[in-house]
Each structure stands twice: as C-alpha cells, then as structure tokens.
C-alpha cells in the first residue's frame, strides 16, 4: 500500500487511487467543483489543486494518482492562491445575481424572493416565517419604510416595481398567528437595552430569537415613544401587535426609567446595548465589533450613532449588533457580520428582460394588495435571484477563498439568458462553468439524446446534440442533472426553497 505525505502528515493511500481520495479518507478537505464520486475525472475546474513539494507543480488532485512517497501541500498560501485564481477565472465567464437586487438593496437583507415564492405557492405561513426571521417589527417597519427594495426592483425597469412592502404586510397579516418558532435554546445571560425605538426593540427581537430574554429600558411612560412621536399616523394596532409579540417572545419592557450611565448596569447584566436616539451622547464605537471603545460589554447602534438613519437602517444595525452581542456572550471573537457575497448583473442588456419575464405574469402592479390580489401581485416578480444561492458550490468557495469575482473582468459582459423549454428544468447558460457533470449523468442514464459540449475553445457551451431541445436531451435524468450541477446553471423550475 503506498504512503503519501500531505501537509507534513503521512497517510496511507489506495494503490491506483487519486490524491483526492486519499486526502478525503484521511479527513483532509480539498474543495472540488467538477469532480463527482464514481465518475471519471474531467479535471476542468482546477479548484482541487494541490502542490507537489519537490517540483512545485500544481496538479488537480481529483485526476492525479498517488505515487508512493510523494509529498503534497494542500493548505499552503500557494495552493490557496491557485484555487482562488481558478475560481476568479470561472467568475470571469459567469453572469447572474446570487441575491436579487431587491434583497441586496434592503439594508436589513430580507430574503424577498423567498417570501414572494411562498406567497405564489399560497403558503403565507412560510412567507411570514421568513419575514419574522429576517426583520424585526415588520408590521410597523414596512408601513413607514422608504422602500429601497422597490426602488431597486428589476420589474420596475419594465413597468412598475413589485409591491414588495404591501406583500410583506400581507404575509404577516395572513400568515398563521405569525408566532415565530421558539428559540432552539434558552440563554441565561442577561442583556440590558437602553431605548425602545426601532434599534432597541429590533435588537431585543433578534436576541430573543437566539434564546435571550433581554430587558428594554425606556425613559418615557410608554414603550416605543419615539416611534409614536415620529409616525403619528401609524395605526396603534400595528404597533400594539408588534409589542405583544415581543413580550410573548420573552422581552421585558421597563418604562419610565432613564439610564444616564450604562456602565453600572454591567453589575447586573452581562451586556448592555445603547440604542438611544439622535441628540443623546454619542459614544465612540469600534465599527468592526460595534462595541463602545474602552468597554468590554457595552455596545451601541442605530440613531445614537447616525442621527439621520432611516428605520430600516436601524433594524439592520440592530440585527448586526445582536449578532455581535451573541458572539461576545458566547466568548467568541466579535465581528460585525459581513455583507453576504453576491455577484450582480447590473443594468440589463437589450433583450435580457424578455428572458426574465418568461416566468412571471404580464399584469400591471396591483393597487391594493389584499387577499384577492396578493397572488397576482406576487406573480409579477421575475425571480432575479439565483435559485441555488444557498447551495451553489461556486458561491460557497468564493466566500471561503475570499474571491474577487471581478478580478479577470474583460470589460465585456456575458449575455444572460434563461431557457425554460424543459417542464422541470430552468437552464441559465451564463451560470454554466462547463464542468460536464450533467453530461456524465445523462450518459449514465442512457438518455437517447443527452447533453454535450458544442463549439470549440472559448465558444464552447452546453447543448443538446442534433439541435434537440433541453426537454429532449433530459427525458429521464433531469432531477439528477440538477443535483449534479454545482452552480445555479440547472435548477428546478418548481420553487427551490430558500429557508
Ligand atoms: S450560480 Fe452560484 S455564483 Fe452564480 S449566480 Fe448562482 S449562486 Fe451566484
Ligand atoms: S422582480 Fe422580484 S426578485 Fe426581482 S428585484 Fe423585484 S421583487 Fe426582487
Ligand atoms: S450545466 Fe452542466 S456543465 Fe454547466 S455547470 Fe451545470 S453541471 Fe456543469
Ligand atoms: S479539477 Fe478537480 S474538481 Fe475540478
């Protein structure tokens, strides 16, 4: 039995086996995109690169056989750099939006396409669940919000933007009791929040969802005083419903209590959040940790730091600071969550909108979004997001390897299109990395036509032989081809749920 050395560790390997196989058997993780267990290696992506120590050569571990005594680097900077470059080259020929424009522009990062997908499927409970997971106080927020999601909605470049905010309000009105699922664990650490405006109440919501029972201190005689004063037309019932939900989630509201100095609270509480308003003393805050400089457990967020911030920015800040406080209380390094990775198409080229419109209704925006109109309005969404954003291996590796997707941009942008000639499969050629996995799967299922690469060199693309349609190429193996595709090039036309 041959023995090889990976990163200084001697491991046994199977005679005639590959380096990848030996590494994985020894628990050493090497990323792959075009490799499929049980199929011959295509070795096209090079993200499984490892380095031969004696020659310095970089080789694909999925296609390279072990040789007794070989020494390999799989985690050095050189190897990471080579993998990053392989990924960046793939992105130079890749086009789409991992996250939809509406989600990217929403400061609180509401997963809008998933909410709309559930409404389209007449699943308001699930839609409301996503809203409550991603936002705080949505019954108030989406009424007073300046609605950047709608300004950025791609449908708006065709006719009118989707009525996103109204649909969110509809989801929480109709969706079950809107009660969130209880936190997975109960946390004993005590958290004090000073201020019951958007930031304070939202932070309390996100912390309660993580199992804490925060106490919110408000100097006025009633909670949410600043919200009531700023938005006098807000229906009282909307605010009352949100406050009830907070209380039933374990948040304690203490009113008529002014806190001048947060420091003494640390005697009774494990963490303190300053969420007061504009005009109050502005603390100096480390922007990476959201912690007040010179303190261990005092954090600050929201309009006390940026006085002109909009409500949705306060909710976004609250979400971030809740995450920082949670990390702090768990004794982990504190880091404000980064913006989620997404490539983006930007302005559409002539004709591209037609492809987006293929899967949506051609109706105009509904003026009223009530129970009769919600379905029709949600069908206007052209589904800009990538249906595999949460499972795409290319995106995950881009995050792991800190990829700059634009490094090898040539300036000319790849054209985006959407093929829906198959009843089950959506094919987005601009997201195909030409790994060949779907071709292999179709071949194993002895598809009559199957799939193939057509053309040469840079022009090579996936297609069906003899000018066949995708429907004819994937008669039996559609499901497996979708599963084998490491990117969002092949996805289910039925909703791919993103919970
Ligand atoms: S295929 Fe992956 S990288 Fe490409 S748009 Fe979809 S999620 Fe993003
Ligand atoms: S069309 Fe749908 S997915 Fe696209 S930006 Fe508008 S709401 Fe978001
Ligand atoms: S469509 Fe086929 S060749 Fe293209 S990325 Fe997906 S599996 Fe690979
Ligand atoms: S070259 Fe090995 S996984 Fe793609």
Task: Describe the model.
- The protein is α/β, with parallel strands linked by helices.
- The chain contains 18 helices and 16 strands.
- The protein has helices at residues 19-25, 77-91, 101-105, 112-120, 124-134, 138-144, 148-151, 164-174, 198-209, 225-230, 236-248, 311-329, 352-357, 374-378, 393-400, 437-444, 470-473, 478-484, and strands at 3-6, 9-12, 49-52, 58-60, 71-73, 191-194, 215-217, 252-254, 271-274, 285-286, 291-292, 298-300, 425-427, 452-454, 461-463, 490-492.
- The strands form 5 sheets. The protein has a 5-stranded mixed sheet, covered by helices on one side.
- The structure holds iron/sulfur cluster (3 copies) and FE2/S2 (inorganic) cluster.
- One iron/sulfur cluster (SF4) is lined by residues 94, 96, 98, 343, 386, 388-389, 392, 394-395, 431, 487-488.
Short description:
With 499 residues, the chain is an alpha/beta fold.
Keywords:
single chain, 499 residues, alpha/beta, 4 domains, 5-stranded mixed sheet, 5-stranded parallel sheet, 16 strands, globular, binds FE2/S2 (inorganic) cluster
What would CATH call the class of the largest domain?
Alpha Beta
Determine the fraction of residues in helical runs and give it as a percent range.
Answer: 25-40%
Quickly count the domains: 4
Rg, Å, rounded: 26 Å
CATH architecture of the largest domain: 3-Layer(bba) Sandwich
Q: What bound compounds does this protein have? A: iron/sulfur cluster, FE2/S2 (inorganic) cluster
Strand order of the largest sheet: 2-1-5-3-4
């Amino acid at each position: 039995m041959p023995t090889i050395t990976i990163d200084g560790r001697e491991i046994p390997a199977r005679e005639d086996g590959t380096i990848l196989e030996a590494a994985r058997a020894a628990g050493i993780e090497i990323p792959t995109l075009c490799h499929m267990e049980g199929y011959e290696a295509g070795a096209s992506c090079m993200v499984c690169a490892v380095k031969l120590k004696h020659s310095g050569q970089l080789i694909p571990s999925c296609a390279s056989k072990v040789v007794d005594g070989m020494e390999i680097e799989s985690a050095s900077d050189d190897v990471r750099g080579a993998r990053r470059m392989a990924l960046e080259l793939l992105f130079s020929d890749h086009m789409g939006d991992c996250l939809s424009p509406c989600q990217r522009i929403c400061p609180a990062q509401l997963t809008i396409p998933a909410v709309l997908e559930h409404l389209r499927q007449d699943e308001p409970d699930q839609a409301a669940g996503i809203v409550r997971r991603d936002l705080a106080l949505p019954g108030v927020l989406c009424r007073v919000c300046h609605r950047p999601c709608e300004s950025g909605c791609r449908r708006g470049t065709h006719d009118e933007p989707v009525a996103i905010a109204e649909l969110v309000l509809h989801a929480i009105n109709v969706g079950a009791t809107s009660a969130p699922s209880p936190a997975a664990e109960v946390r004993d650490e005590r958290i004090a929040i000073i201020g019951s405006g958007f930031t304070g109440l939202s932070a309390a919501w996100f912390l309660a969802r993580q199992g804490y029972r925060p106490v919110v201190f408000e100097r006025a005689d009633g909670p949410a005083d600043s919200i009531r004063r700023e938005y006098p037309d807000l229906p009282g019932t909307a605010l009352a419903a949100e406050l009830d939900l907070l209380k039933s989630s374990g948040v304690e509201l203490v009113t008529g209590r002014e806190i001048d100095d947060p420091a003494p609270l640390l005697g009774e509480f494990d963490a303190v959040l300053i969420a007061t308003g504009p005009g109050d003393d502005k603390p100096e805050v480390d922007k990476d940790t959201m912690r007040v400089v010179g303190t261990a457990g005092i954090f600050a967020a929201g309009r006390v730091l940026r006085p002109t911030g909009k409500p949705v920015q306060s909710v976004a800040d609250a979400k971030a600071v809740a995450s920082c406080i949670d990390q702090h209380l768990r004794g982990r390094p504190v880091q404000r969550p980064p913006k989620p990775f997404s490539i983006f198409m930007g302005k559409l080229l002539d004709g591209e909108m037609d492809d987006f419109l293929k899967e949506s209704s051609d109706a105009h925006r509904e003026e009223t979004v009530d129970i009769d109109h919600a379905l029709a309005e949600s069908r206007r969404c052209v589904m800009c997001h990538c249906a595999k954003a949460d499972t795409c291996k290319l995106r995950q590796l881009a995050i792991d390897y800190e990829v700059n997707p634009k490094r090898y941009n040539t300036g000319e942008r790849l054209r985006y299109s959407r093929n829906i000639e198959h009843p089950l499969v959506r094919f987005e050629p601009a997201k195909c990395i030409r790994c060949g996995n779907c071709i292999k799967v179709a071949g194993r299922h002895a598809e009559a036509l199957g799939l193939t690469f057509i053309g040469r060199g840079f022009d090579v693309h996936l297609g069906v032989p003899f000018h066949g349609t995708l429907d004819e190429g994937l008669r039996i193996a559609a499901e497996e081809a979708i599963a084998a595709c490491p990117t969002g090039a092949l996805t289910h036309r039925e909703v791919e749920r993103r919970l």
